Amino acid sequence: MKKLFSILTVLGIISLSSCKRDWICQCTDSNDNTTNTAINGGTFLHAEHTCKATGEKCSLITESN
Question: Whole-prediction pTM value?
């Protein structure tokens, strides 16, 4: 069971980190104002790094087409 979980985890990480897609970085400032910033054509890791670099409370969501 541990091997199956490990294999599924590795496959999940690879699939999230290698797919290039459009992402939305949704940030909330101290006044509860929400802003959305598009991150086009990036991998999950690139988009997450870009989103978290703002220093605000941000979350990464996929852009639905």
Answer: 0.61
